[in-house]
Amino acid sequence: MNQIKKNWINIDPFSLQTRLILGTATFSALVLGSLAIWISWKMQQILVDSHKYNIGQIAKRLPRDVQIYSEMMQPETGLQKAINNLENPNILLWLKGSNNKIIVKSASLSLLSNATLSELMSLTKMPIKPQVYQINQSYFVLCGSSVQVQGKLLGDLFVVKDITREQKMFMAMVQSLGIISLLAIIILTAAIAVYIKRSLQPLRQLNQMASVISAEDLGQSQLSVDNAPSEVKELAQTLTILLSRLSQSWKQEREFVSNVSHELRTPLTIVHGYLQSVLRRQNNLTQTQQEALETAASEAERTIRLLQDLLDLARADNGYLYFQMKSYVLNDLVEEVVMMAKKYSDRIIQIESKVDRIEVKADYSRLKQVLLNLVDNAIKYSEADTPIVLKLNQLQDKAILEVCDQGYGIPLQQQARIFERFYRVDESRSHTTGGCGLGLSIVKTLVEGMRGSVTVQSKLGEGSTFTISLPTYTNN
């Protein structure tokens, strides 16, 4: 029961499966409904319309019979004889005069209940064409005509036939037909739903295969579905070709970034060296020249760092970013990073450790680069009078390092994207902070390369906490 309820909750009203089921169910309902209505109409013709025809014939015949009998006997006697000839237990006949009094009636009227008889006798006019009327719990076909003898109007003829049995049978059959039609629609819809679900299974398999393809698997991905329709197989082949083209395009892009970064880094390093050399002999420079050279050297250094980050990312994408994994004490590394950060900043940087010695297996220089990036971000995006705290802890086989600040914070909707390349939360501060949107991407790449993970928690106006989780040495 819980599984059925869960399946109902997970139904997508806009899915192809739901649309096909609703469409075929609606079409089936229209077809079966139309068929049921037609069958009901035919049944009414068989069970009811024949009685209407018989009553109509009696209403036409009786005046002629009365006319014939009146030539041989008294009109009242001929009228009674004609009624006696046509009456049966289900057919009721009587004649009302101009004073609304009954002149003659058939003996079958005595078979009716007093309430029904009283209701029938209270009728003053009869329809010329036979009609079905319900009186109490009974059904009757009513028809009437006028009776004339030798040009003289004797009265109005009332012809009634009791069709209660046939009408109830007709209503029961219509009710049964409606229930059968409803059950047929439900069963047919369920069968169609199962058939459509199985028919769409190849598309689901294709979707599942495509969803697990990563950027590194594009070139080797082969999408194929067994026992699938020709259209699905053609779609799989087209997607395979598309993935291959994407892989080639991405490979060319990564090679281009790597080559350009490598080619530009060397001349920029030389330019930066010459600028530093000139600045060291600043006695021969004017104030304006010195400021211009310092700006050029700073921008050259920033561009070199950008190119180095691009090179690292390109190597990671191509699988050429190697790590020298060794055992290190994380506490010592954090203290070294804090000392380095304090040399270039007058900020308060604190260390809080719940464990005196935490050993991790990592690449020392890469992990130092990660921590420097995170501390540098914390300095850039928080006020100068607020502290930055590095918290160390060990949970089972994981070493936990948190870099906490009390800065501007990151909007919730942007926290999932801050590790993307070239993504910046605030474009307006990119120039003042010197960021290019690669720092956190480098952090994520390096941490995951050391079999760790990095996450962020942040609130606007309260600060951010970046958490790095690394496997401890004892676990390896």
Overall description:
The protein has 476 residues and is an alpha+beta fold. The chain is rod-shaped. About 1% of the residues have low confidence. Helices cover 55% and strands 17% of the residues. 19% of the residues are buried. The protein is built from twelve helices and twelve strands. The two termini are 46 Å apart. α2 runs antiparallel to α3, α2 packs antiparallel against α5 and α10 packs antiparallel against α12. The strands form three sheets. Strands 2-1-5-4-3 form a five-stranded antiparallel β-sheet. A five-stranded mixed β-sheet has the order 7-9-10-12-11, covered by helices on one side. Strands 6-8 form a two-stranded antiparallel sheet. The chain has three domains: 160 residues, PAS domain (Beta-Lactamase); 89 residues, Signal transduction histidine kinase, dimerisation/phosphotransfer (DHp) domain (Helix Hairpins, Orthogonal Bundle); 150 residues, Histidine kinase-like ATPase, C-terminal domain (Heat Shock Protein 90, 2-Layer Sandwich).
Question: How would you concisely characterize the structure shown here?
Answer:
With 476 residues, the chain is an alpha+beta fold. The protein has twelve helices and twelve strands. Helix 2 (16-70) packs antiparallel against helix 5 (164-199), helix 9 (330-344) packs across helix 10 (364-380) and helix 10 packs antiparallel against helix 12 (439-449).
